[in-house]
Amino acid sequence: MHAVFALTCLLAVVAGFVSGQAAWTDGHRSAENVAHHRHTVTASTVGETAYRAGEQPGSRPVTVAAATWHYPSQRPHTETIPVPAGTRNGDAVRIWVDGNGSAAAAPPSQADIVLNAVAIGTGALAGTVLAGGALAAVRLRIVDTRSARAWESEWAGVEPLWSGRLRPGQGAGDD
Questions:
Q1: Helix (H, G, I), strand (E, B) or coil at 127
Q2: N or C terminus of the chain with fewer C-beta within 10 Å?
């Protein structure tokens, strides 16, 4: 049983590495695709900054301001965008835009890709080890149950002779 669990752990390492490598490759491919379709432009703020709640509950507020920029072909756009804290009216900020000129998120950074790959690889490793451990525990439980039943059966035949007690239906001198 130990050899099977050790083999499962080895398989988990391989699964974690392969999953992490696949996530790394896919992340790079996706980031390159996003970067190919997004561009940075300089926007000018046209209003005072404000704070907006973060995207997830409990996350930090985001500093935002209305800004205007031209993309593509001098087409004007005005949107409320995230800006660095301390940005004033009229300041220039660099933003990412999509092919239509709308504000968009930056392509995933190298750190984002690495963290995602590590998380997926670690998840695959942990999931495989937990599944293997659960299967080993179930198998040991089955073996223990069968052993206990066999012991009970054998003990039922040996115990009356060993203890000298009468068995059910046996009278004195019926040995």
A1: helix
A2: C
Q: Is the previous residue joined to 72 through a cis bond, with omega within 30 degrees of 0? A: yes
Residue 94 φ then ψ, to 5°: -90, 130
Burial annotation 137-159 (CB, 10 A radius, 16+ → b, else e): eeeeeeeeeeeeeeeeeeeeeee
Both tokens assigned to 140: 């040991």
Residue 171, class by beta-carbon neighbours within 10 Å (0-12 exposed, 13-18 middle, 19+ buried)? exposed
CB-CB neighbours of 108 under 10 Å: 18
Banded pLDDT at 77 (limits 50, 70, 90): very high
Task: Tell me the C-alpha distance between 137 and 149, whole Å.
Answer: 18
What confidence category does residue 173 fall into, taking pLDDT thresholds of 50, 70 and 90?
Answer: low
**Cβ-proximal residues to 131 (8 Å cutoff; 6+ apart), any chain:** 8
Radius of gyration (C-alpha) of the chain in whole angstroms: 34
Q: Which helix (H) or strand (E) holds 114?
A: helix 110-163
The alpha carbon of 167 is separated from its chain's Cα centroid by a whole number of angstroms, namely: 61
pTM: predicted TM-score of the whole model, two decimal places: 0.67
